[in-house]
Amino acid sequence: MRTILSIILLCFCGLSFAQTTISGTVVDDVSQQPIPSANVVIAGTSTGTATDFDGTFVLTTDQKPPFKIQVSSVGFTSKDLEVTSNDQKFNIVLNEGTSLDEVVISASRTPERIFESPVTVERFGLKEIKNTASADFYDGLENLKGVDVNTNSLTFKSVNTRGFATFANTRFMQLVDGMDNSTPALNFPIGNLVGMTETDVLSVELLPGASSALYGANAFNGILFMRSKNPFDHEGISASFKRGITSQEAAGDNPYTDLSIRMAHKFSDKFAAKINFGYLKGTDWQATSTVDKIDPTRTRSNTNYDGINIYGDEVSTNIRAASGLGVIPDVVVSRTGYNERDLTPYNAESVKADWGLYYRPIEDNSLELSYVGKVGTGTTIYQGTNRYNIDNFFQQQHKLEVKNDNFFVRAYEVSDKAGDSYDMVFTGININRAWKSDEDWFGDYIATYAGIELTGNPLGLTDQQKHDAARASADTGRYEPGSAEFQAAFNRSINDPDLSTGSKFQDASKYFHSDANYNFSHLIDIAEIQVGGSYRKYKLNSGGTIYTDGDSPIEYSEFGVYSQIQKNLELEGEKELKLTVSGRYDKSELFDGFFSPRLSAALTLNRNHNVRASVQTGFRNPTTQDLFIGLDAGRAILVGSAPSNLDRYSRDYDISLEGQTFYGQPSQVTQTGTAAYNNSYSASSVIDFAAAGNPALLEVSNPDIIKPEKVTSMEVGYRGKYESIIVDLSAYYNKYEDFISQEVVISPFYGTAGDNGLSVAALANGDYQTYSAYTNSSADVSSYGASIGLSTKVFNGFDLSGSYTFTKQDFDKAGNPDFQTNFNTPEHKFKASFGHTNVFENFGFNVSYRFSDDYFWEATFGNGIIPEFHVVDAQVNYKIPSIKSIIKLGATNLTGQEYFTAFGTGFIGSMYYASLTINNL
User: Fold this and answer.
1) What is the pLDDT of residues 421-432, one digit of tens each?
2) In angstroms, rounded to a whole number, what is the distance separating the alpha carbons of residues 280 and 302?
3) What is the SS3 assignment for 144?
């Protein structure tokens, strides 16, 4: 009891201190104009406020004078000021500065100049948001140094750093005001589809690389932090309206609309509230590739053609094995599929709203209680194992938080509903089956081919012409897109969650999360000490359409605790050393606990030069999909490897006539997911066996069940200023252990893998199932890279910046042909921008350029080369200070050269837009 009472008193001891209130104005040194949204923060804490549109601020704190405040704003040199008395008033003038003077919070969970940060941090502040040439602030992140943005669709983009990314990017976290933005069903963020509205964004920070020591298991490749405006500090009504067109060769020119509104009011010194609304509508980038997934030289004339964006042709069989006739060739034939554009309207839409109630119960005290709610619905394209039309997807978040200068405690719940979403691949497959079963279709194909052969081929047809005739016969009466029969079959499929007959994607999953942090800096002078922890509970509920939760939801939980000690050591002259030691322990109920330490040092040589180094270990637990998925993706079945999951996935399979006749097998067998892990061959060895007929080429796979992945990360960096040139340089090396990925395996329906007998016969007879197993690689996997960014002012005030990023994977693919790391990152990237915020009175512009080297994309949907691309975006703007508004005209991908960032997606065209932002300068 005494211990509990002590903890409670410790958390709220700040309430007993006398209150200090300060106020003032912040202006720039050139025009003496007020600086809105300047940060005013108590040094060494996360407590602070921001100036309003008139550059004024009021800050109340528990701390007694004397103490220091840091005043900063993007583009200006920060200033430290001494607070010596209560009710002190300041008239603060900030000099034009550089990006090194910006203040960040994410690197150490406490405010610090980016110049002094012990790790690499990228920041996208209000100035960058207002001047980005991209269509919105989220798209503008792709201009940051070292950042990759993979475009899934117009409304779904995936942010990543330092490699190893697919659209299901579970290695990268996205936090909005401290809340994880990942969807419960998919376990990763879906871009900004249900995220923040642009008018409410205060700042965006990005931490590349592992951050498990402070932020837990999912902070493996990096974290994106988005902070919104507090209504106590940012009042009023602001709005943004954007109208334009998207232009793509496949889709033509289509209208694009983006609207956001923010309303905030401070009702008193104790209560404030805000509400935001956002609406976006456009036409998605159409994916129309007819290139064969396996062999780009093949066309539909090939018997086993499988087009990238053609669905239904995934269903195939060996027609000799199916017929048992010697006159039938020993080839695999696939069914005729439907184009993706016939299976989706390519609607891109997002509707989102959020609201917040903020209460400060004690006058002149920083204690704040808040409730924040967020809801969003939208339509987009998602590419995972298959391509999905995410239609009327819905996600909501609700958060309660208590915080003051020294601590926060928050709890929130995130839940989603799949709405009318469906799998486009299985839609194509099951429209075909609704017209004619697979058995009947292949039977008609075989009968036609056999008829030609048995009649002596009187027309002298070539092999290709025989197959064309067989396909034409089998396809006679096929439902054509646009017909009433096609539409009826389509509607039945997208409303049926049984993948044997339909394609509906169901989900109503959720997770509950809570975390807390306490900073002892107001109690302990020797160093800044923080402690914290988190807890999360998952509840998966897909009705058996994604996970093996057909009978009941799947629940499991995890927790973590951490601490950080940071100490500044003053050395001779201007030199200063900042040492940071962090450690975190995380435990999932499914795995052993793991400890993640981090040690970093930042040495300030003088006011213009700083070097940094860090070493840390990180880990990530297997995701919900790694553990509990049970999904037939057509070409393979995905089975998660949680021990309880293996037998929950079960299916019945028909045995071939040869298996029944010659090997005494029953007409049907039942196989569970356990077979993928306990009785399987590697897929590559089965392909080799099929080509050569030599059983000695077969390799038993039997992958281990999955366990957490670990990384050891080392990083060095430098930030400095040489006259007018700002330099930011970093290099890193990551060494992975138990790298998580998927391995394609093949399980025979009878026999034991490696028996050199019955299982080989099963493979030869086509009596097997292909699985994608979730496991860890025993191979060495590592990556390394470096980035350099340069920025300066030229021609009397024009902003010029550029960056180069090198990224490389070290992995023996030839020695591990069945293992995919999904590195999916260009080796070389170059980015540059040129502009001026006020080239003449109230007029500004910005031009940005991006280059990406070609790279190889691999994922469960398909693998292929992504060609290099060059992209130019531009915007011009005119400010109207009297109404605090700005007009912008912009265009993305000005050259019109269409490109793509991932295998299987639509080509990215151009956007042209005009926007008006009101009361948000």
Assistant:
1) 999 999 999 999
2) 42
3) coil
